[in-house]
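Worked problem 6 (solution included).
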Amino acid sequence: MAQNIRNRRSNKCLQAALFAGVAAAPLLTVPAFAQEGDAADGLDTITVTAQRREENQQEVPISVSTLPEDRWRTFQTAGEDIRALAARIPGVYAESSNGRAAPRFYIRGLGNVDFDLAASQPVSIIVDEVVLENVLLKSTPIFDIEQVEVLRGPQGTLFGRNTPAGIIKFDTKKPTEEFDLYAQFAYGTLDTITGQFGVGGPIIEDLLSVRISGLAQTRGAYIDNAAPGFEQEDAFGDFEEFAGRAQVLVTPTDRLSVLLKGNIRTLEGTSALFRANIIEPGVGGLIENFDRETVFFDGGAGNRQEVDTWGVSGKIDIDFGAATLTSVTAFNSGTSNSRGDIDGGFVGPNSFFDTASPPAPPFGPDTIPFPSDTQDSIDDLDQFTQEVRI
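Solution. The predicted structure is:
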Protein backbone atom coordinates (compact mmCIF):
# COMPACT_ATOMS: atom_id res chain seq x y z
CA MET A 1 0.00 0.00 0.00
CA ALA A 2 2.84 2.37 0.87
CA GLN A 3 4.37 1.79 -2.56
CA ASN A 4 1.11 2.70 -4.30
CA ILE A 5 0.77 5.84 -2.20
CA ARG A 6 4.32 6.83 -3.02
CA ASN A 7 3.78 6.43 -6.78
CA ARG A 8 0.47 8.27 -6.65
CA ARG A 9 2.07 11.26 -5.00
CA SER A 10 5.53 11.45 -6.59
CA ASN A 11 4.73 14.43 -8.81
CA LYS A 12 3.00 16.18 -5.93
CA CYS A 13 6.08 15.79 -3.72
CA LEU A 14 8.34 17.17 -6.45
CA GLN A 15 6.12 20.20 -6.90
CA ALA A 16 6.05 20.82 -3.17
CA ALA A 17 9.83 20.60 -2.96
CA LEU A 18 10.29 23.03 -5.84
CA PHE A 19 7.82 25.48 -4.31
CA ALA A 20 9.54 25.34 -0.92
CA GLY A 21 12.96 25.74 -2.54
CA VAL A 22 11.92 28.88 -4.38
CA ALA A 23 10.31 30.34 -1.27
CA ALA A 24 13.29 29.55 0.96
CA ALA A 25 15.87 31.56 -0.96
CA PRO A 26 19.42 31.50 0.44
CA LEU A 27 20.02 33.92 3.29
CA LEU A 28 22.46 36.76 3.11
CA THR A 29 23.05 39.00 6.12
CA VAL A 30 22.05 42.10 4.22
CA PRO A 31 21.47 45.71 5.36
CA ALA A 32 18.59 46.07 7.79
CA PHE A 33 15.71 48.51 8.09
CA ALA A 34 17.48 51.75 9.01
CA GLN A 35 19.87 52.34 6.13
CA GLU A 36 21.77 55.44 5.14
CA GLY A 37 24.04 55.54 2.12
CA ASP A 38 27.67 56.30 2.89
CA ALA A 39 29.11 58.27 -0.01
CA ALA A 40 32.66 57.82 1.30
CA ASP A 41 32.88 54.04 0.96
CA GLY A 42 29.72 53.17 -0.93
CA LEU A 43 28.43 50.96 1.89
CA ASP A 44 25.10 51.09 3.69
CA THR A 45 24.83 51.64 7.43
CA ILE A 46 23.10 48.81 9.30
CA THR A 47 21.38 50.21 12.36
CA VAL A 48 20.71 47.77 15.22
CA THR A 49 19.37 48.06 18.76
CA ALA A 50 21.46 45.29 20.27
CA GLN A 51 22.44 47.55 23.20
CA ARG A 52 18.96 49.03 23.73
CA ARG A 53 19.68 52.04 21.53
CA GLU A 54 20.13 52.67 17.82
CA GLU A 55 23.74 52.16 16.74
CA ASN A 56 25.78 51.36 13.67
CA GLN A 57 26.26 47.58 13.64
CA GLN A 58 29.98 48.03 12.94
CA GLU A 59 30.34 49.92 16.23
CA VAL A 60 28.58 47.31 18.39
CA PRO A 61 31.02 44.98 20.24
CA ILE A 62 28.61 42.03 19.95
CA SER A 63 28.21 39.33 17.31
CA VAL A 64 24.99 40.40 15.57
CA SER A 65 23.29 39.10 12.43
CA THR A 66 20.34 40.90 10.87
CA LEU A 67 17.54 39.84 8.58
CA PRO A 68 15.35 42.43 6.82
CA GLU A 69 11.59 42.22 6.52
CA ASP A 70 11.41 41.49 2.79
CA ARG A 71 13.62 38.40 3.17
CA TRP A 72 11.45 37.07 5.99
CA ARG A 73 8.29 37.49 3.93
CA THR A 74 9.89 35.39 1.18
CA PHE A 75 10.34 32.51 3.61
CA GLN A 76 6.71 32.72 4.72
CA THR A 77 5.30 32.20 1.24
CA ALA A 78 5.79 28.45 1.78
CA GLY A 79 3.72 28.53 4.99
CA GLU A 80 6.72 28.33 7.32
CA ASP A 81 6.61 29.34 10.97
CA ILE A 82 9.22 30.94 13.24
CA ARG A 83 11.44 27.87 12.82
CA ALA A 84 12.27 29.19 9.36
CA LEU A 85 15.20 30.93 11.06
CA ALA A 86 16.97 27.57 11.25
CA ALA A 87 19.87 27.39 8.78
CA ARG A 88 19.01 30.84 7.43
CA ILE A 89 20.99 32.85 9.96
CA PRO A 90 24.53 31.60 10.72
CA GLY A 91 24.77 29.72 14.01
CA VAL A 92 20.99 29.51 14.59
CA TYR A 93 18.98 26.29 14.67
CA ALA A 94 15.35 25.62 15.64
CA GLU A 95 13.36 22.42 16.14
CA SER A 96 10.18 21.24 17.83
CA SER A 97 8.64 18.08 19.26
CA ASN A 98 5.24 19.81 19.34
CA GLY A 99 4.70 20.89 15.74
CA ARG A 100 4.31 24.63 15.21
CA ALA A 101 3.46 25.27 18.88
CA ALA A 102 6.65 24.98 20.94
CA PRO A 103 9.98 25.64 19.19
CA ARG A 104 13.39 25.09 20.76
CA PHE A 105 16.16 27.43 19.61
CA TYR A 106 19.91 26.89 19.59
CA ILE A 107 22.64 29.47 19.00
CA ARG A 108 26.15 28.18 18.34
CA GLY A 109 24.90 24.74 19.40
CA LEU A 110 23.76 25.85 22.86
CA GLY A 111 20.13 25.08 23.65
CA ASN A 112 17.84 22.86 25.71
CA VAL A 113 16.52 19.59 24.26
CA ASP A 114 13.79 19.33 26.93
CA PHE A 115 10.49 19.19 25.03
CA ASP A 116 8.28 19.93 28.04
CA LEU A 117 6.09 23.00 27.56
CA ALA A 118 7.25 24.41 30.90
CA ALA A 119 10.98 24.02 30.22
CA SER A 120 13.14 27.15 30.18
CA GLN A 121 15.38 27.75 27.20
CA PRO A 122 18.81 29.46 27.04
CA VAL A 123 17.79 31.39 23.90
CA SER A 124 15.37 34.23 24.57
CA ILE A 125 12.80 35.45 22.05
CA ILE A 126 12.04 39.17 22.27
CA VAL A 127 9.32 40.92 20.27
CA ASP A 128 9.08 44.70 20.47
CA GLU A 129 11.24 44.72 23.62
CA VAL A 130 8.98 42.22 25.40
CA VAL A 131 10.59 38.90 26.36
CA LEU A 132 8.48 35.84 25.52
CA GLU A 133 9.54 33.27 28.09
CA ASN A 134 7.33 30.21 27.62
CA VAL A 135 7.81 28.11 24.48
CA LEU A 136 4.13 28.59 23.68
CA LEU A 137 4.68 32.35 23.36
CA LYS A 138 7.96 31.81 21.51
CA SER A 139 6.03 30.20 18.67
CA THR A 140 4.14 33.45 17.97
CA PRO A 141 3.82 34.10 14.23
CA ILE A 142 6.20 36.75 12.92
CA PHE A 143 4.75 39.14 10.34
CA ASP A 144 4.81 42.82 9.36
CA ILE A 145 8.26 43.16 10.87
CA GLU A 146 10.99 45.74 10.42
CA GLN A 147 13.90 43.38 10.98
CA VAL A 148 15.32 40.45 12.94
CA GLU A 149 18.47 40.67 15.07
CA VAL A 150 20.32 37.63 16.41
CA LEU A 151 22.72 38.37 19.26
CA ARG A 152 25.14 35.54 20.01
CA GLY A 153 26.58 34.84 23.44
CA PRO A 154 25.36 35.73 26.95
CA GLN A 155 23.01 38.75 27.00
CA GLY A 156 21.92 38.75 30.64
CA THR A 157 23.22 42.26 31.36
CA LEU A 158 20.79 44.00 28.99
CA PHE A 159 18.09 41.38 28.42
CA GLY A 160 17.75 39.45 31.68
CA ARG A 161 17.51 35.77 32.56
CA ASN A 162 17.63 32.76 30.24
CA THR A 163 19.92 34.36 27.66
CA PRO A 164 23.27 32.52 28.07
CA ALA A 165 23.18 31.38 24.43
CA GLY A 166 21.90 34.70 23.08
CA ILE A 167 18.66 36.28 21.95
CA ILE A 168 16.56 36.53 18.81
CA LYS A 169 15.00 39.96 18.64
CA PHE A 170 12.07 40.93 16.40
CA ASP A 171 11.02 44.51 15.75
CA THR A 172 7.62 44.95 14.14
CA LYS A 173 6.64 47.90 11.98
CA LYS A 174 5.31 50.77 14.06
CA PRO A 175 2.71 53.46 13.31
CA THR A 176 4.14 56.47 11.48
CA GLU A 177 3.04 59.88 10.24
CA GLU A 178 3.00 58.57 6.67
CA PHE A 179 0.35 56.28 5.19
CA ASP A 180 1.68 52.82 4.41
CA LEU A 181 -0.01 49.74 2.95
CA TYR A 182 1.18 46.36 1.77
CA ALA A 183 -0.46 43.00 1.11
CA GLN A 184 0.93 39.62 0.08
CA PHE A 185 -0.76 36.41 -1.05
CA ALA A 186 0.75 33.07 -2.05
CA TYR A 187 -0.70 29.72 -3.07
CA GLY A 188 1.23 26.50 -3.50
CA THR A 189 0.99 22.74 -3.60
CA LEU A 190 -0.69 20.82 -0.78
CA ASP A 191 -3.25 23.65 -0.80
CA THR A 192 -0.79 25.90 1.01
CA ILE A 193 -2.16 29.43 1.35
CA THR A 194 -0.32 32.34 2.94
CA GLY A 195 -1.61 35.88 3.18
CA GLN A 196 -0.53 38.87 5.20
CA PHE A 197 -1.09 42.61 5.23
CA GLY A 198 -0.14 45.78 7.05
CA VAL A 199 -1.73 49.20 6.90
CA GLY A 200 -1.05 52.30 8.94
CA GLY A 201 -0.87 56.05 9.01
CA PRO A 202 -1.90 59.19 10.88
CA ILE A 203 -5.37 59.67 12.36
CA ILE A 204 -4.64 63.07 13.91
CA GLU A 205 -1.55 64.74 12.49
CA ASP A 206 1.35 65.01 14.93
CA LEU A 207 -0.73 63.38 17.65
CA LEU A 208 -2.25 59.98 16.82
CA SER A 209 -1.14 57.23 14.42
CA VAL A 210 -2.28 53.63 14.07
CA ARG A 211 -1.20 50.41 12.36
CA ILE A 212 -3.13 47.17 11.82
CA SER A 213 -1.61 43.98 10.44
CA GLY A 214 -2.56 40.34 10.08
CA LEU A 215 -1.41 36.92 8.92
CA ALA A 216 -3.25 33.80 7.68
CA GLN A 217 -1.56 30.49 6.87
CA THR A 218 -3.29 27.22 5.98
CA ARG A 219 -2.37 23.88 4.47
CA GLY A 220 -4.43 20.84 3.54
CA ALA A 221 -3.88 17.36 4.94
CA TYR A 222 -1.64 15.25 2.69
CA ILE A 223 -0.22 12.43 4.85
CA ASP A 224 -2.03 9.07 4.80
CA ASN A 225 -2.49 6.68 7.71
CA ALA A 226 -1.75 3.11 6.57
CA ALA A 227 -1.99 1.28 9.92
CA PRO A 228 -4.24 -1.81 9.63
CA GLY A 229 -7.70 -0.97 10.89
CA PHE A 230 -6.93 2.78 10.86
CA GLU A 231 -6.48 3.40 7.13
CA GLN A 232 -7.31 6.94 6.07
CA GLU A 233 -6.16 9.08 3.20
CA ASP A 234 -5.07 12.69 3.84
CA ALA A 235 -5.32 12.26 7.61
CA PHE A 236 -2.44 14.46 8.80
CA GLY A 237 -0.28 17.42 7.86
CA ASP A 238 -2.90 20.18 7.84
CA PHE A 239 -2.96 23.41 9.83
CA GLU A 240 -4.79 26.73 10.06
CA GLU A 241 -3.09 29.67 11.73
CA PHE A 242 -4.34 33.23 12.08
CA ALA A 243 -2.77 36.19 13.85
CA GLY A 244 -3.51 39.89 14.14
CA ARG A 245 -1.93 42.99 15.66
CA ALA A 246 -3.16 46.53 16.32
CA GLN A 247 -0.96 49.43 17.43
CA VAL A 248 -1.71 53.00 18.47
CA LEU A 249 1.01 55.66 18.81
CA VAL A 250 0.24 58.86 20.75
CA THR A 251 2.74 61.74 20.65
CA PRO A 252 1.26 64.66 22.61
CA THR A 253 4.64 66.46 22.68
CA ASP A 254 8.03 66.11 21.02
CA ARG A 255 9.37 64.66 24.29
CA LEU A 256 6.63 62.15 25.08
CA SER A 257 5.40 59.13 23.12
CA VAL A 258 3.06 56.32 24.13
CA LEU A 259 2.79 53.14 22.05
CA LEU A 260 -0.06 50.72 22.82
CA LYS A 261 -0.28 47.29 21.20
CA GLY A 262 -2.63 44.32 21.21
CA ASN A 263 -2.11 40.96 19.50
CA ILE A 264 -3.99 37.70 19.07
CA ARG A 265 -3.17 34.29 17.58
CA THR A 266 -4.98 31.01 17.00
CA LEU A 267 -3.63 27.72 15.64
CA GLU A 268 -5.31 24.41 14.90
CA GLY A 269 -3.79 21.51 13.01
CA THR A 270 -1.63 18.40 13.08
CA SER A 271 0.86 18.00 15.91
CA ALA A 272 4.36 16.65 15.36
CA LEU A 273 4.44 13.30 13.54
CA PHE A 274 6.78 10.64 14.90
CA ARG A 275 7.83 7.65 12.77
CA ALA A 276 9.17 4.32 13.94
CA ASN A 277 12.09 2.37 12.45
CA ILE A 278 12.96 4.81 9.68
CA ILE A 279 16.72 4.91 10.41
CA GLU A 280 18.74 2.12 8.81
CA PRO A 281 20.10 0.00 11.72
CA GLY A 282 23.87 0.14 12.02
CA VAL A 283 24.21 2.26 8.91
CA GLY A 284 22.38 5.53 9.43
CA GLY A 285 20.24 7.42 6.99
CA LEU A 286 16.64 6.70 6.04
CA ILE A 287 15.52 3.19 5.17
CA GLU A 288 14.90 2.36 1.54
CA ASN A 289 11.10 2.10 1.82
CA PHE A 290 10.56 5.32 3.80
CA ASP A 291 7.63 7.38 2.53
CA ARG A 292 7.28 10.92 3.89
CA GLU A 293 3.58 10.99 3.05
CA THR A 294 2.61 7.81 4.91
CA VAL A 295 2.47 7.01 8.63
CA PHE A 296 1.23 3.99 10.61
CA PHE A 297 -0.65 5.33 13.65
CA ASP A 298 -3.03 3.39 15.88
CA GLY A 299 -3.35 6.10 18.54
CA GLY A 300 -3.03 9.81 19.12
CA ALA A 301 -6.72 10.61 18.52
CA GLY A 302 -5.87 12.21 15.20
CA ASN A 303 -2.67 13.93 16.38
CA ARG A 304 -4.42 17.26 16.85
CA GLN A 305 -3.07 20.50 18.24
CA GLU A 306 -4.72 23.75 19.33
CA VAL A 307 -3.18 27.02 20.50
CA ASP A 308 -4.77 30.32 21.47
CA THR A 309 -2.79 33.32 22.72
CA TRP A 310 -3.32 37.04 23.18
CA GLY A 311 -1.37 39.92 24.65
CA VAL A 312 -1.28 43.65 25.30
CA SER A 313 1.65 45.96 25.88
CA GLY A 314 2.47 49.61 26.39
CA LYS A 315 5.69 51.52 25.87
CA ILE A 316 6.27 55.04 27.20
CA ASP A 317 9.27 57.18 26.23
CA ILE A 318 9.96 60.47 28.03
CA ASP A 319 12.86 62.55 26.70
CA PHE A 320 14.50 64.67 29.40
CA GLY A 321 17.17 65.97 27.07
CA ALA A 322 20.22 64.46 28.75
CA ALA A 323 18.49 61.08 29.08
CA THR A 324 15.36 59.21 28.03
CA LEU A 325 13.17 57.30 30.47
CA THR A 326 11.56 54.21 28.93
CA SER A 327 8.90 51.98 30.46
CA VAL A 328 7.74 48.75 28.79
CA THR A 329 4.75 46.93 30.33
CA ALA A 330 3.26 43.75 28.87
CA PHE A 331 0.82 40.97 29.67
CA ASN A 332 0.50 37.79 27.62
CA SER A 333 -1.87 34.87 28.08
CA GLY A 334 -2.51 31.60 26.28
CA THR A 335 -3.70 28.01 26.25
CA SER A 336 -2.54 25.01 24.26
CA ASN A 337 -3.30 21.32 23.84
CA SER A 338 -1.32 18.81 21.80
CA ARG A 339 -1.65 15.01 21.53
CA GLY A 340 0.17 12.48 19.43
CA ASP A 341 0.97 8.85 18.70
CA ILE A 342 4.64 9.26 19.60
CA ASP A 343 5.61 5.60 19.17
CA GLY A 344 5.35 6.26 15.45
CA GLY A 345 3.82 2.92 14.48
CA PHE A 346 1.32 0.24 15.43
CA VAL A 347 1.47 -2.90 17.53
CA GLY A 348 1.24 -5.99 15.36
CA PRO A 349 2.90 -9.22 14.28
CA ASN A 350 6.50 -9.17 13.05
CA SER A 351 7.33 -6.40 15.45
CA PHE A 352 10.93 -5.25 15.42
CA PHE A 353 11.38 -6.80 18.88
CA ASP A 354 9.44 -9.97 18.15
CA THR A 355 12.28 -12.49 18.37
CA ALA A 356 9.98 -15.33 17.32
CA SER A 357 9.57 -13.92 13.83
CA PRO A 358 11.90 -10.97 13.32
CA PRO A 359 11.36 -9.04 10.10
CA ALA A 360 13.96 -9.08 7.39
CA PRO A 361 15.84 -5.82 6.84
CA PRO A 362 15.18 -3.17 5.87
CA PHE A 363 12.62 -2.85 8.65
CA GLY A 364 9.49 -0.95 7.74
CA PRO A 365 8.29 2.21 9.47
CA ASP A 366 5.25 0.43 10.83
CA THR A 367 5.27 -2.13 13.69
CA ILE A 368 6.46 -1.31 17.21
CA PRO A 369 6.70 -3.44 20.40
CA PHE A 370 4.30 -1.38 22.55
CA PRO A 371 2.11 1.74 22.10
CA SER A 372 2.88 5.22 23.44
CA ASP A 373 0.27 7.99 23.29
CA THR A 374 1.16 11.33 24.86
CA GLN A 375 -0.64 14.59 25.51
CA ASP A 376 0.73 17.89 26.83
CA SER A 377 -1.22 21.05 27.50
CA ILE A 378 -1.20 24.46 29.16
CA ASP A 379 -4.57 25.33 30.63
CA ASP A 380 -3.81 28.94 31.56
CA LEU A 381 -0.51 30.65 30.84
CA ASP A 382 -0.16 34.21 32.16
CA GLN A 383 3.00 36.27 31.80
CA PHE A 384 3.46 39.81 33.12
CA THR A 385 6.65 41.77 32.46
CA GLN A 386 7.72 45.27 33.44
CA GLU A 387 10.92 47.02 32.39
CA VAL A 388 12.11 50.50 33.28
CA ARG A 389 15.36 51.91 31.97
CA ILE A 390 17.14 55.21 31.48
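Discussion: Helices lie at 2-23, 69-76, 135-138, 156-159.
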